[in-house]
Every structure is written in C-alpha cells, then in structure tokens.
Structure of non-specific serine/threonine protein kinase:
Amino acid sequence: MDLTIFLVIFLIPSSSSLSFNFSSIGHSTSHSITILGSGYISEKGIQVTTDERGERLAQLVGRATYIDPLHLWDRASRKIADFSTSFSFVIDSRGSLDLGDGLTFFLAPIGSTIQPWSFGGNLALGNGGVPVNSTSQAFVAVEFDTYQNLYDPPQQTHVGIDINSMKSVVTTKWENNVTLGLQNDAWVSYNGSSMELRVEFTGKSRNGTQRGNLSYMVDFRDYLPENVTVGFSAATGDLFETHTVKSWEFYSSSLELAPPPPPPLPPRIVSSSLPPQPNAGGGGGGVGLVVGLSVGLAIVIVSLVFASYFLWWRKKKNNKKEMGDDRAGSFHPHMDIEFQKGCGPKKFSYRELVRATNNFAKEEKLGEGGFGGVYRGFLAETNSYIAVKRVSSGSKQGLKEYASEVKIISQLRHRNLVQLHGWCHERGELLLVYEYLPNGSLDSHLFKGQTILPWEVRYRIAQGVASALLYLHEEWERAVVHRDIKASNIMLDSNFNAKLGDFGLARLVDHEKGSQTTVLAGTFGYMAPECVVTGRASKETDIYSLGIVFLEIACGKRPIGRSKDQEKQMVLVEWVWSLYRSGRLIEAADPELAESGYDEREVEQVMAVGMWCARPESDQRPSIRQVINALSSEADVVPGFPPLMSVPT
C-alpha cells in the first residue's frame, strides 16, 4: 500500500451532523447548553431572560446556545447542510398590556458575544435597523417580536426573519396573547439545495390556536462562516416580559467533505554536472540511513496492512457467528458504511439495546407491527428514552425492509417525521432505534379508548401529517413514496404533534416519475383501488391513504368496520360519501367530539378534503400542496363531487 493512500484513508476529516432532542428542559440538560447574559436554566426550562429569581426585568439581555457547533456549509464542496428544529416557548408579560421586546432563534459565528447596546429591540443580537459591521457579530435569526420599533412592520406582535439587522427581510402577523403567558410552538427548517428558510408557528386568539408561516430564500454562505452556533436570544427594554424555552429539538444533515488534494509529487531527479557533495559523516553513512529508514518504513506499512486485514477477517468471522447463518450472509460487508452515509443515526451494539430494554422485557413492549415488536428502552449515557423496533425473524421481507428503512429515513429531517437514532444487526437480530414518543400511535387514541382527542388536537394532527407528506413528495431532493400511511403509523409526541413513521415499505423515485411497478404492499382499507389491482405505487396512492386518515380523524371510525346493527360491512369512505350526497355530511363527525366542542366548518372541511383525496380515479385526486392549501384556506376550495362514486376498472 502506498503511504500517501494510507494517510489519505485514515486522515480525511469527517463531518458529522448535529442532532439532539430535549423533550423537556431542566437542570439535567444544563451541561449541554451555554448561557450568556442574565439567563439561566430552571426546572421550567431555559429562562433566556431572568424570571423567578426576583431580579429586575427591564433592560435585560440573554442568550442560550447548544454546546456543540453546527457545520453549516463546506468550503471545498460548497454544499450547505439541511436542518430542522422545533421548540416550545412562553413569552409572558404577567398580565401587563405593555410588553417588550421578544425572543429569537438564531445562528451566529462561534464566539459571538452579547454587545452592550443589544437590549430592547436589538433582542441581544443586533443594532436596531442598522446592519452589523463586524463579521464576528453576524447572524441570521427568526424573531418573535412583541414591541413595535420604528423599523418594525405595523403589527406590534409579529414573526420575522432577520439577516445581520433587526429590520426584518420578511414578516407576518403573529396573533398571540402574551399577557396570559400561553405556550406556543415553532418549527424552523432549511433546505440546503433550494436555500429556503421556512418558519411555521402557533399563536393564540379568541378562536383558539392559530397557525402561521413565512419563508425566505437565503444563501448562508454569503452571511455566516462554515461552523456556527445555534440557540436563542431575548431582551427587554423599559417594558418587560419573561422568555422561556420549554423544549428543543434539532437535526441537521451531514456534509460529505471533499477529500484533501494529494500531496505534490517529489521533484524529478535529473543528472547534474555539479560535483557530488561530500558526506559530513563520511563513509556513506547518509546513504545507509536513507536505505534503513526506507526499509523500516516499508516493513511498518506492510505490517499495518496485514494487521488490518487480519482484524477485518476476524471481525467478519465473529459477526457471522453472532448474526446466525440465515441473516449474516445477507449483509454485504459495506452495508454499515452505506448506513453511515445518512445524516446522524449511529450503529448500536446488541448489548447496549439489551441493557436499554431490560432484555426486551414484556413490560417494556409498546406494540406489535407488521415486521415485529416495538420496545421502550432507556439509555443511561444520554439520560433519554428510545423506542426499539425488533424486526421479526419470521418476516420474509424483514431484511429488505430493514435496509430500506435505515437508508431512506436516515436522510430525512422534518418535524413531522419520526427520527431514526440508529440501528443494530447482530446475533441474528435486526433492530431499529427511534426517538421515543410517549403518546403512542394515533389509532390507539381514536379506536382503543386511550384518550379522547379534542378537535383542536385532531386538526393539528391532520395538518402535521400533510406537512410530512409535502416534504416527502416535493421538498426533499428525491420524492419518497411512503406506501403505508395509516393511523397506526402516525405517532404522537408529548404535545400530541403528529410524526409519520414506519418507512419499511417506502421507495425513492425521481420527482419527474409518477409511479413505479412493485409488488402489492400496504394495508387494506388504506390502499387505493389502482394499487390493489396493479400493484403500482405512486404519490397519488399516498394521497388516497392520507384521505382515509383524514376521514378517520374526523369520524372516529376505522376504514373498514361494521354497521351499527353489525349485519354488514361498512366502508368508511362510501358511508361519508352517502351522507355528503344527502346534505348531512356533519352527521359523520365523531360523536366523542361533542364533549369538548368543535368547529363544524373545520370538521366538514377535513372530511371534504379526505373525500377529495380518496377519489377512486387517481387523476381526480389533489396534489399534496393542494391538500395543504385546502386545509389552511377559509374558502371552499374543494371541488364538487359527482352524485355517484365511480370505481375504476
């Protein structure tokens, strides 16, 4: 092996993603968060500016940043990382109608500090509407502004995107009652290919929780260095309010660094008429030294090669013993390398997962899926819970679906997708490690009586699943056809936000290709008619499944069930269609919703969109972007339906 090649292989720098999830913030997370200014961490969360310690609340500044940096872009390849973050926060004026000034989520150069003039509308970042004049103080931020400065838009409370100045490049109104100190949620994502920075957020009004969004095209390479810090900032002026971050989740993609250029070739030796130089030591000792070093170096390199080969051979042999003959032969030696090209998941050892799940104890079992059981586990190293999917050894497609899930979902980052933390294939086991979502699956709440979900929560779940599918179908670099969207594959986090999971059947397709021929896959009741007949999966078949889920959410019924008298089978979409034809659509609403009350217009809207998605004719279904627009529009944008439901032949 050439020494240059050897060094290049072992000395190429690596670029890892940034990934963490603080579902609740307290003293236990203080080692991961750096505080600047007047802030601190309590059991209530990150107090970005002073709260219950009894100190003054006016003209305060504070920052809270994650301890590790984010590799935002790579100078050699010019690639920019994707990232997504979500957080819950409270801004509380303690009943006062005079409030100020706000909270931001920001990115800034490592070492960026709070400046003396950054209180009030500067939100611990900027210098009013004047651009910063130092690269070390550069920033890009999403602001939740509660005070109207001269450079602000007409709305007193608004959300904006700031680039090196507190004069936002884009803003939108933020309906929020800060005087009551209610909790809000925000999601910020960036697509490194399209360079779109997108913000979605909740607000409070008399009509309940409202959702808003804004976006802006920004090339981070023009404003920020390759490595940055991420976190929150807040400030008060002469008026005051408190700023608390209750939870925080962050994921970024890794950047594959370009290998360093090969070292220059040694100078070419040419003959010279100059006389040879005498050896200082005499007797040709210099030549002997060169020869000796060359031989020694060659022996070292050869020894390293043989030692590396022996260790690789022994590890491969042991892995085969551990995994068992049935599955070991199915793994290519480079499978781990392929898996590690994803954006953050890691390889776990079997021993780690046995310890975390108490040897897959029955009391830790969360449920059983099509490819095996799911167990709750606890990782002492990170002080966090995980969910471990144990692929059944009796599943004929287990290995294929396992590999597909790791390779696809490890590259995806979205607030409404279940995040994969890692994998393990040892001792004949196929194990997938996910984030733990304490509220389980949507179907357990709709059909198994775990809790009664109020309409406000159901409506947010419908929007969240649609947002996940928009990312899969249109926003990621390649289109992902999920092929198994159903209520049991929609998980709920601690705030009942929806997260779509189980990508074992998912397939990557090019954006310009509409469908692909495949073996029949999916779940009956959720499968589009053409998928059952031809086995052809497409974006349109995903839309059909989404429509069935919408009907389940609004009606509280399974896709296929029994009529009230239990005498005949009832197909949900046909039953809702019949009520629509007779002008009694609202009668399909889940009776359980009456206890907490609901907005009839929204319920009918979700059912109408569900029927639109579940049209038997694939070319009559909406795109996922049309679905998003229909859900968020107050106008009736769903087209009329024919009086009879046709079935394609």
In short: The chain has three domains: 19-252, 344-435, 440-631. Residues 19-252 form a domain with the Jelly Rolls fold (CATH 2.60.120.200). The mean pLDDT is 79.
